[in-house]
Amino acid sequence: MDPVLLPRHRGPARAEGEVMLDVQYKGWLIEPQSYESDAGWRPRALLIFSTGGSTYEHRLPAALYEMHETEEQANIYSLQMAKKWIDDRG
């Protein structure tokens, strides 16, 4: 099944009007949260799961050595990393 992309406007750290796409995957919402550091872009994702009126969040950072030249590349990696994390947990 293909992921569902949900447009979400970000807070003031994003340029005005810029939209980041979140992905729904196997009942989880994956929100890429990559950020820029001195060495490049660091992948990071927020995973959100809601069930029975409760919402669970899990922050998933990449390994310290994982850096990318652009935010887009880091976000693509963060989505792949998050999907693997979800798949590994059934």
Strand content: 35-45%
Structural class: alpha+beta
Radius of gyration: 13 Å
Given as residue ranges, the uncertain stretches (5+ residues, pLDDT < 50) are 1-18
Largest sheet descriptor: 5 strands, antiparallel
How many H/I helices?
Answer: 1
Helix content: 10-25%
Question: Your description of this structure?
Answer:
With 90 residues, this protein is an alpha+beta fold. The protein has a domain at 1-8 and 20-66. Helices cover 20% and strands 44% of the residues. The protein contains 1 helix and 7 strands. The strands form 2 sheets. The protein has a 5-stranded antiparallel sheet with strand order 1-2-3-6-7. A two-stranded antiparallel sheet has the order 4-5. The radius of gyration is 13 Å and the shape is elongated.
Keywords:
90 residues; alpha+beta; disordered N terminus
Task: Spell out the blueprint of helices and strands.
Elements: E1 4-9, E2 19-25, E3 28-32, E4 35-37, E5 40-42, E6 44-51, E7 54-61, H1 71-88
Antiparallel strand pairs: 1-2, 2-3, 3-6, 4-5, 6-7
Structure summary:
This protein has 90 residues and is α+β, with helices and mostly antiparallel strands.
